[in-house]
UniProtKB/TrEMBL annotation:
GO terms for molecular function: carbohydrate binding. This is Legume lectin domain-containing protein. Belongs to the leguminous lectin family. The lineage of its organism: Eukaryota, Viridiplantae, Streptophyta, Embryophyta, Tracheophyta. Residues 1-20 form the signal peptide. It comes from Musa balbisiana (Banana).
Length: 200
């Protein structure tokens, strides 16, 4: 098996609508954007690294590796005065680079978590987020992940080998869909191949 585990990252998160850009990342209240991660103060672990051209590389081509990149400080997602959970949006560009045309590492995820410590989590199909025991649903896991998954793992009831899933506290997605987008003009669904090696 040529499993190269790409893993999870947490990157640009912005709330409200104002956006500003800079070469090194700017944090303005709860809005921020990174145009390249060269000067970004991210908390990296595992094999995650910043390349000389400012890309965030969450894993390398070794098997079953994991890496994470977290925003250095916690972000408040619940309004203190009334307990309302804020909405947010995030946008990032990514690519899965594989030595094989029809097979890539397991995937990656955008994660919101109460901890940056995923030292006990496994790579591979666990996406650097859980292990066999913690993947048993537990409301105390406090993990929300949007997974980009390129391998069909029957144990997690995956729908196919190219999907986006919303995971709450474990890797059995609450919702998932074949990767792609709806064309603005035609309204038709256009499939995207996550493992194609293209930036998307
Ligand atoms: C980077 O983040 C860490 C953790 O929040 C913080 O202690 C440190 O001051 C930050 N450094 C810079 C240059 O912002
Ligand atoms: C909660 O407070 C925030 C900020 O004070 C406000 O924008 C929001 O509308 C409030 N939500 C409710 C349900 O009262
Ligand atoms: C699995 O992960 C949980 C949560 O981090 C940890 O408490 C537990 O020790 C881990 N189990 C193993 C076998 O590593
Ligand atoms: C859920 O996680 C909490 C905190 O890690 C732990 O104390 C509890 O035993 C776990 N529950 C189950 C059913 O594993
Ligand atoms: C997500 O899935 C877990 C585990 O099946 C379930 O306990 C939880 O209620 C689900 N949440 C939502 C919002 O569907």
């Amino acid at each position: 098996m040529f499993i190269k585990a790409l893993v999870c990252l947490l990157l640009l998160l912005h709330r409200r609508s104002s956006l500003a850009s800079s070469s090194s990342g700017r944090y303005d209240g709860d809005d921020f954007i990174f145009n390249g991660f060269g000067g970004a103060n991210l908390t990296l672990d595992g094999v995650a690294s910043i390349t000389s051209t400012g890309l965030l590389m969450v894993t390398d081509k070794s098997m079953e590796t994991k890496g994470h990149a977290f925003h250095p400080s916690p972000l408040r997602i619940r309004d203190l005065s009334n307990g309302t959970v804020v909405s947010f949006s995030t946008t990032f560009a990514f690519g899965f680079i594989s030595d094989y045309t029809d097979f890539s590492g397991n995937g990656m995820a955008f994660v919101i978590s109460h901890t940056k410590d995923f030292s006990k989590a496994l790579g591979g199909q666990f996406l650097g987020l859980f292990n066999q025991s913690s993947n048993a649903y537990n409301s105390s896991n406090y993990v929300l992940a949007i997974e980009l998954d390129t391998i069909l793992s029957p144990q997690f009831q995956d729908i196919d080998d190219n999907h986006v899933g919303i995971d709450i506290n474990n890797l059995i997605s609450n919702k998932s869909h074949t990767a792609g987008y709806y064309d603005d003009h035609t309204g038709s669904f256009e499939r995207l191949s996550l493992g194609s090696g293209q930036a998307m």
